[in-house]
Specification:
Cro/C1-type_HTH, HTH cro/C1-type domain-containing protein, 22 helices, 477 residues, 65% helix, mainly alpha, 2 strands
């Protein structure tokens, strides 16, 4: 089972519904494809309830029965075709079409470029596992097409940011906002969702933001479907909690990618869900996380406002939102030149963290760990103009943090007139970050540093090297 696919039990439930509703195999395959995250080719096999071995045997028997020659298929080859790691030959595509009584378009092995919309075709749109699906003839608004778009982006050899994909990110958020205004789900589904959200929080720290964004869009599509009918209060709270966490991760990814408009909108969605849930600590977390968007994109006063709002909501109990709010406030105040207030806020962040329960060894997004405290402490001290005895250690889970600290140090070197040292340090910072993490949030800070270099110093060797590096660099896409 490939990453992101539902378990075989989900396809079995679709076959049971298909039998009771007398769907065609094609309708069943579409439902499985739309819900379970599998390719159309694999969905045809699952719609028949065949294992990979059975499918190969059926293909061999078909070839023998109809004198079609040797099948030239195996379990390994079939798995490769189904997971888009290889493409069958044209003769094999024809045999697969005969086997599944379909055509190459319906197998997902060719594009459909017809002008007509084939109005007679009815597409089965997936609900979540255990939910009753529905049918529609309006395929443009079909969740299945949107899921297929993100799956296709994830299967590519390099991740790309296109207008179409970003429009679908936007549409996912808008759909989610609408369903939050209205809202039957099993305990097993909720447990699985909680596990998925925890896994995303763990993987997000080390993963590149763009593929993570696409994966979260797929997950949010499932959450929105589950939330489309009002649930019992406890189930609704768990769905809202998942919505908040996934929306926050999406907003943070978009912030790193430099799309501030959509990042703001996704933070708004997270606020809507957290306010609906009524958990003050979660509401505080949303504000504390959101505070970093204006910090990196130019409105330090808004960062201070959001950080203070987070601290007020978090109350006196030690928690990640309270510590993060104080640390974010300290960093912004230091950058604004309010050094005394910054030191007070930093001391408060350290005091809150000292009272927090031990964090364990599990690194999770939105958990204020000792590593995060160190990041904010060093960033604040640099802005305060203090000498910081710090060098990046071995590559850790927070791939982007050491780079941002180095760029902060380089910016202060420029202001002190040490232009070549600053550019050498900035170049070192950019080269040490993996290309997939070299997103707008990193490149923009490096370009901002370069813009502060006096015109008379721009022909220096280190300045030219950094200029060339930035000219060749592009956000990971």
């Amino acid at each position: 089972m490939a990453r992101g696919e539902h378990s075989p039990a989900c396809a079995r439930r679709w076959r049971e519904q298909a039998e009771s509703r007398q769907w065609t195999p094609w309708q069943t395959a579409q439902a499985i494809h739309g819900c379970c995250g599998v390719s159309l080719l694999k969905a045809h096999r699952l719609a028949r309830g065949w294992s990979a071995r059975q499918s190969v045997q059926e293909l061999e028997e078909l070839c023998e029965r109809q004198n079609l020659g040797e099948a030239r298929a195996s379990i390994d080859l079939l798995n490769a075709w189904e997971n888009n790691r290889a493409r069958p030959r044209p003769q094999t595509i024809d045999l697969l079409a005969r086997l599944y009584r379909a055509n190459s378009v319906r197998l997902g092995l060719a594009g459909d470029y017809c002008d007509d919309d084939d109005g007679a075709r009815v597409v089965v749109v997936s609900g979540a596992e255990g939910r009753t699906p529905y049918q529609t003839e309006d395929r443009a608004d079909d969740d299945m097409e949107r899921r297929a778009l993100f799956h296709h982006a994830l299967l590519g050899s390099r991740f790309v940011m296109t207008g179409r994909l970003l429009a679908e990110v936007e549409r996912t958020r808008q759909d989610l906002d609408r369903t939050l205004a209205v809202a039957t789900v099993s305990e097993e589904q909720l447990d699985r969702l909680d596990e998925q959200v925890l896994r995303y929080r763990r993987e997000y720290i080390t993963s590149a933001p763009l593929p993570m964004l696409y994966r979260m869009m797929l997950e949010l599509s499932d959450v929105r479907t589950l939330s489309a009918a009002r649930q019992p209060a406890m189930a609704q709270r768990r769905l809202l909690n998942a919505t908040v966490m996934l929306a926050l991760l999406s907003a943070d990814a978009l912030m790193k990618l430099g799309d501030t408009r959509q990042a703001h909108a996704w933070y708004g969605t997270a606020r809507t869900a957290s306010d609906d849930m009524g958990d003050v600590r979660l509401r505080a977390l949303v504000r504390a996380q959101q505070a970093m968007l204006p910090y990196y994109y130019g409105d330090l006063a808004e960062t201070v406002r959001l950080a203070r709002e987070a601290r007020m909501l978090a109350g006196s109990a030690p928690s990640s939102p309270a510590a993060l709010g104080a640390a974010a406030e300290a960093r912004a105040l230091a950058h604004m030149g309010e050094h005394k207030a910054a030191r007070v806020a930093l001391a408060e962040a350290e005091r809150i963290f000292a009272r927090m329960p031990p964090e364990g060894h599990d690194h999770l997004a939105f958990r204020f760990s000792e590593r995060r405290l160190q990041f904010y402490r060093i960033g604040t001290l640099i802005e305060l103009g203090e000498e910081v005895d710090w060098t990046p250690g071995p590559s850790g889970p927070y791939a982007i943090d050491p780079v941002l600290i180095l760029l902060d140090q380089a910016a202060h070197l420029v202001r002190d007139g040490k232009v070549e040292d600053a550019c050498n340090l900035a170049e070192k910072a950019l080269l040490q970050v993996p290309p997939e993490h070299r997103t707008s949030i990193v490149l923009n800070r490096a370009r901002s540093l370069l813009s502060e270099v006096p015109a008379v110093r721009r022909r220096a060797t280190a300045v030219r090297r950094l200029t060339d590096l930035l000219a060749d660099a592009a956000p990971a896409s």
